[in-house]
Amino acid sequence: MRLGVKDVVATVLVALIAIPYIGYLVNGEMPFVKDPRGMAAVGLVLGVVAFLVVRWGDALDRFGVAEMGLAVLVLVLGVVTLFLAETAAAEVLLAVFMGSILLMLMVELADHAGVFRGAVSHR
Question: Can you tell me where the transmembrane regions are (predicted)?
Fold first, then answer.
């Protein structure tokens, strides 16, 4: 199966999260991102939008339920990262949150590409 336009849009949105995160790691800040709280907020907002785009119109099959569970875990991790941004664990939480966003995208794209057996067609 081929990936669709919504998969490309979601990938671009995740890239829009990754680019400032890499800049943040290199420089310690980016425009509009001065600390872990700002980076977590960018990840939350664009990550939710990317998830909504990639899931738009998908049937909620058995694997879709697992994807929703993973999405909820990623969302909770993002909120925890946002609220604990002033603690010593902020950078580690932020790195785990950024990795979980990428993992969520990879799972969705693999599902849409038909990698998982019994997956519903996502056109």
Answer: 7-26, 38-56, 63-83, 89-107
